[in-house]
Design brief:
Pfam family, one: YceD
Protein name: Large ribosomal RNA subunit accumulation protein YceD
Radius of gyration: 26 Å
Number of helices: 2
Shape: elongated
Largest sheet: 8 strands, mixed
Number of domains: 1
Organism: Acidipropionibacterium virtanenii
Structural class: mainly beta
Distance between the termini: 102 Å
Order of helices and strands: EEEEEEEEEEHH
Amino acid sequence: MNTHHRRSDASGDLLIETHDLKRRAGQMIQVARDLPAPEKLGVDMIGVPEGSPIGLDLRLESVIEGILVTGTATTTLAGECSRCLNPIEETTSFDLQELYFYPDREAGEDAYRVSGEETVDLEPVLREAVVLSLPFRPLCMPDCAGLCPECGVNLNDHPDHDHEERIDPRWAALRDLGTEES
Protein backbone atom coordinates (compact mmCIF):
# COMPACT_ATOMS: atom_id res chain seq x y z
CA MET A 1 0.00 0.00 0.00
CA ASN A 2 1.48 3.33 -1.07
CA THR A 3 -0.03 6.56 0.17
CA HIS A 4 1.11 10.01 -0.97
CA HIS A 5 0.87 12.89 1.50
CA ARG A 6 1.38 16.53 0.44
CA ARG A 7 0.70 19.48 2.67
CA SER A 8 2.16 22.84 3.52
CA ASP A 9 2.86 23.17 7.21
CA ALA A 10 3.19 26.82 8.17
CA SER A 11 3.81 26.00 11.83
CA GLY A 12 7.23 24.48 11.08
CA ASP A 13 6.22 21.28 12.80
CA LEU A 14 8.69 18.56 11.88
CA LEU A 15 6.53 15.77 13.29
CA ILE A 16 5.43 13.25 10.67
CA GLU A 17 2.40 11.08 11.33
CA THR A 18 3.04 7.39 10.73
CA HIS A 19 -0.23 5.74 11.72
CA ASP A 20 -0.89 4.78 8.04
CA LEU A 21 2.04 2.34 8.23
CA LYS A 22 0.26 0.20 10.86
CA ARG A 23 3.46 -1.56 11.98
CA ARG A 24 3.40 -3.95 9.06
CA ALA A 25 6.76 -4.46 7.36
CA GLY A 26 6.63 -3.48 3.70
CA GLN A 27 4.19 -0.58 4.08
CA MET A 28 5.36 2.76 2.68
CA ILE A 29 4.17 6.35 2.54
CA GLN A 30 5.68 9.30 0.71
CA VAL A 31 5.75 12.74 2.25
CA ALA A 32 6.29 15.95 0.30
CA ARG A 33 6.13 18.94 2.58
CA ASP A 34 7.29 22.55 2.59
CA LEU A 35 7.86 24.11 5.97
CA PRO A 36 9.77 26.98 7.56
CA ALA A 37 13.22 26.30 9.01
CA PRO A 38 13.59 26.06 12.78
CA GLU A 39 15.89 28.50 14.56
CA LYS A 40 19.67 28.05 14.73
CA LEU A 41 19.93 25.54 11.90
CA GLY A 42 23.59 25.97 11.02
CA VAL A 43 26.92 27.23 12.32
CA ASP A 44 28.29 30.72 12.95
CA MET A 45 29.41 31.49 9.38
CA ILE A 46 26.63 29.79 7.39
CA GLY A 47 23.25 28.17 7.92
CA VAL A 48 19.58 28.05 7.03
CA PRO A 49 17.90 31.33 7.98
CA GLU A 50 15.09 30.86 10.49
CA GLY A 51 11.72 30.70 8.76
CA SER A 52 13.14 30.15 5.25
CA PRO A 53 11.44 27.33 3.32
CA ILE A 54 12.66 23.75 3.54
CA GLY A 55 11.27 21.31 1.00
CA LEU A 56 11.08 17.74 2.26
CA ASP A 57 10.71 14.79 -0.10
CA LEU A 58 10.64 11.63 2.04
CA ARG A 59 9.82 7.94 1.99
CA LEU A 60 8.72 6.35 5.24
CA GLU A 61 8.94 2.57 5.17
CA SER A 62 7.74 0.20 7.84
CA VAL A 63 10.38 -2.37 8.76
CA ILE A 64 10.44 -4.93 11.56
CA GLU A 65 12.43 -2.71 13.95
CA GLY A 66 10.58 0.52 13.24
CA ILE A 67 10.25 3.12 10.49
CA LEU A 68 13.01 3.87 8.00
CA VAL A 69 12.97 7.48 6.79
CA THR A 70 14.91 8.31 3.62
CA GLY A 71 14.83 11.33 1.35
CA THR A 72 16.08 14.84 0.85
CA ALA A 73 15.66 18.28 2.33
CA THR A 74 16.16 21.19 -0.07
CA THR A 75 16.75 24.70 1.23
CA THR A 76 18.75 27.89 0.81
CA LEU A 77 21.88 28.53 2.85
CA ALA A 78 22.92 32.04 3.81
CA GLY A 79 26.11 33.25 5.42
CA GLU A 80 29.36 34.97 4.67
CA CYS A 81 32.63 33.99 3.06
CA SER A 82 35.33 33.16 5.60
CA ARG A 83 37.99 34.96 3.52
CA CYS A 84 36.38 38.12 2.13
CA LEU A 85 33.21 38.36 4.27
CA ASN A 86 30.98 38.78 1.21
CA PRO A 87 27.46 37.37 1.59
CA ILE A 88 26.86 33.80 0.39
CA GLU A 89 23.49 32.44 -0.66
CA GLU A 90 23.04 29.07 -2.35
CA THR A 91 20.35 26.43 -2.73
CA THR A 92 21.39 22.96 -1.67
CA SER A 93 19.98 19.56 -0.77
CA PHE A 94 20.76 17.33 2.18
CA ASP A 95 20.27 13.58 2.24
CA LEU A 96 18.30 12.20 5.15
CA GLN A 97 18.28 8.58 6.27
CA GLU A 98 17.38 7.37 9.73
CA LEU A 99 15.76 4.38 11.36
CA TYR A 100 13.24 5.26 14.06
CA PHE A 101 12.78 2.31 16.41
CA TYR A 102 9.39 1.32 17.77
CA PRO A 103 9.15 1.88 21.54
CA ASP A 104 9.14 -1.86 22.30
CA ARG A 105 12.25 -2.61 20.18
CA GLU A 106 15.74 -2.79 21.59
CA ALA A 107 18.05 -0.02 20.39
CA GLY A 108 21.06 1.98 21.53
CA GLU A 109 20.58 4.98 23.77
CA ASP A 110 21.32 7.39 20.88
CA ALA A 111 18.71 5.79 18.64
CA TYR A 112 15.70 7.76 17.47
CA ARG A 113 12.30 6.41 18.45
CA VAL A 114 8.78 6.51 17.06
CA SER A 115 6.83 8.43 19.68
CA GLY A 116 3.67 6.67 20.74
CA GLU A 117 3.85 4.63 17.51
CA GLU A 118 2.18 7.58 15.78
CA THR A 119 4.87 10.16 14.88
CA VAL A 120 8.55 10.63 14.08
CA ASP A 121 10.32 13.90 14.88
CA LEU A 122 12.50 14.96 11.96
CA GLU A 123 14.06 18.02 13.61
CA PRO A 124 17.09 16.30 15.19
CA VAL A 125 17.77 14.29 12.02
CA LEU A 126 17.44 17.38 9.81
CA ARG A 127 19.62 19.42 12.17
CA GLU A 128 22.30 16.71 12.18
CA ALA A 129 22.26 16.35 8.38
CA VAL A 130 22.51 20.10 7.79
CA VAL A 131 25.11 20.97 10.43
CA LEU A 132 27.40 18.03 9.59
CA SER A 133 27.28 18.88 5.87
CA LEU A 134 28.08 22.57 6.19
CA PRO A 135 31.59 23.73 5.30
CA PHE A 136 33.79 24.66 8.25
CA ARG A 137 35.09 27.66 6.28
CA PRO A 138 32.51 28.66 3.66
CA LEU A 139 33.83 30.39 0.55
CA CYS A 140 32.05 32.63 -1.96
CA MET A 141 34.13 30.96 -4.70
CA PRO A 142 36.85 28.30 -4.54
CA ASP A 143 39.67 30.72 -5.39
CA CYS A 144 38.54 33.62 -3.19
CA ALA A 145 41.53 35.95 -2.63
CA GLY A 146 40.23 37.32 0.67
CA LEU A 147 41.04 40.68 2.23
CA CYS A 148 44.32 42.60 2.30
CA PRO A 149 45.84 41.95 5.74
CA GLU A 150 47.10 45.54 5.96
CA CYS A 151 44.15 47.66 4.89
CA GLY A 152 41.18 45.29 4.43
CA VAL A 153 40.61 45.88 0.68
CA ASN A 154 38.75 43.00 -0.99
CA LEU A 155 41.41 41.40 -3.19
CA ASN A 156 38.73 39.83 -5.42
CA ASP A 157 37.66 43.32 -6.51
CA HIS A 158 41.22 44.73 -6.67
CA PRO A 159 43.59 41.92 -7.70
CA ASP A 160 46.48 44.34 -8.41
CA HIS A 161 46.24 45.94 -4.96
CA ASP A 162 49.70 46.40 -3.42
CA HIS A 163 51.50 48.27 -0.65
CA GLU A 164 55.05 49.51 -0.44
CA GLU A 165 57.43 47.00 1.04
CA ARG A 166 57.20 47.20 4.78
CA ILE A 167 60.37 47.55 6.75
CA ASP A 168 60.63 46.03 10.15
CA PRO A 169 60.64 49.01 12.56
CA ARG A 170 63.66 47.54 14.36
CA TRP A 171 65.70 47.96 11.16
CA ALA A 172 64.23 51.30 9.99
CA ALA A 173 67.22 53.31 11.28
CA LEU A 174 69.56 51.32 9.02
CA ARG A 175 67.60 52.29 5.91
CA ASP A 176 69.12 55.78 5.88
CA LEU A 177 72.66 54.59 6.74
CA GLY A 178 73.91 54.31 3.15
CA THR A 179 72.45 57.67 2.06
CA GLU A 180 74.21 59.87 4.61
CA GLU A 181 76.96 62.18 3.35
CA SER A 182 80.30 62.00 5.08
